[in-house]
């Protein structure tokens, strides 16, 4: 019997051969391959980016480059995406993966702590049309503080993993730092009247936020 996920995949647009390759390579050679956005979320990121048509995109958490390439599908001519990754052991794999697609020419990889890069790297654009947060879950509130003024009015923020496999409503995880970080982020976003927001139960939770 076909699973519901298989049915969704079969009735959604296919992804590129490059993304197929990155998926296979990640599952074969990289620790925690479940961190990859995957086909369906990748198509959602791509379509959201195409609807927004951002000139500048910021991604916090590159992993192996899959989501960066999905988001880059919405860039207009001359647009650019800056992606920040803390794990320097992934750098060579990321650069190779990005080089497999012509979209990679529009993607700038920064290796290091996202908070430090955001605070100190003058090569980053002053403002972004779209930000995708998918890095250390314990730091989501800090990321929001750092990027808020750099998101243009009417701009968009996407935050991944905001349901955290249901742990955000499970009291068994009351002492888990990542769960607590996501709860704090979700609460702050929900209470911030400057933001329009909705959490989608997609994969592990995807929050769509618009800066008013």
Which features does this protein show?
212 residues, alpha/beta, 8 helices
Would you kindly provide a written description of the structure presented here, covering whatever features stand out?
The chain is α/β, with parallel strands linked by helices. Helix content is 38%, strand content 21%. The protein has helices at 4-10, 17-29, 39-52, 66-72, 91-99, 114-120, 140-147, 177-191; strands at residues 56-60, 80-85, 107-111, 128-133, 151-160, 195-200, 206-211. It has a seven-stranded mixed sheet, sandwiched between helices. A hairpin with a 5-residue loop joins strand 6 and strand 7 (206-211). The model has no long low-confidence stretch (mean pLDDT 97).
What's the topology here?
Layout: H1 4-10, H2 17-29, H3 39-52, E1 56-60, H4 66-72, E2 80-85, H5 91-99, E3 107-111, H6 114-120, E4 128-133, H7 140-147, E5 151-160, H8 177-191, E6 195-200, E7 206-211
Helix pairs in contact: 3-4, 6-7
Question: How would you sum up this structure in a few lines?
Answer:
With 212 residues, the chain is of the alpha/beta class.
| SSE arrangement, N to C | HHHEHEHEHEHEHEE
Number of strands: 7
From the alpha-carbon coordinates, what is the Rg to the nearest angstrom?
17 Å
Given helix and strand content, the structural type is alpha/beta
Q: Characterize the overall form.
A: globular
Instruction: Summarize the biggest pleated sheet.
Output: 7 strands, mixed
Number of helices: 8
- Given as residue ranges, the uncertain stretches (5+ residues, pLDDT < 50) are none
**What is the end-to-end distance?**
45 Å
Q: What does the average pLDDT come to?
A: 97
Q: What is the percentage of strand-forming residues?
A: 15-25%
Residues in helices, as a percent range: 25-40%
Enumerate the strands of the largest sheet in spatial order, edge to edge or round the barrel.
3-2-1-4-5-7-6
């Amino acid at each position: 019997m076909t699973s519901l996920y298989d049915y969704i995949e079969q009735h959604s647009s296919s992804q590129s051969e490059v993304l197929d390759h990155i998926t296979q390579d990640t599952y074969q050679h990289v620790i925690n391959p479940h961190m990859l956005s995957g086909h369906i979320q990748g198509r959602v990121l791509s379509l959201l980016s195409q609807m927004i048509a951002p000139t500048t995109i910021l991604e916090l958490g590159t992993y192996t480059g899959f989501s960066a390439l999905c988001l880059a599908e919405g860039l207009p001519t001359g647009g650019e995406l800056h992606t920040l990754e803390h794990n320097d052991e992934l750098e060579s794999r990321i650069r190779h993966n990005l080089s497999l697609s012509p979209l990679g020419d529009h993607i700038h990889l920064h290796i290091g702590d996202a908070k430090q890069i955001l605070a100190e790297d003058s090569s980053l654009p002053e403002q972004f049309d779209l930000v995708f947060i998918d890095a250390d879950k314990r730091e989501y509130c800090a990321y929001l503080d750092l990027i808020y003024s750099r998101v243009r009015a009417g701009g968009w923020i996407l935050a991944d993993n905001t349901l955290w496999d249901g742990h955000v409503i499970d009291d068994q995880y009351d002492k888990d730092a990542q769960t607590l970080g996501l709860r704090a982020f979700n609460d702050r976003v929900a209470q911030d009247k400057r933001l329009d927001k909705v959490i989608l139960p997609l994969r592990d939770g995807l929050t769509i936020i618009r800066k008013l």
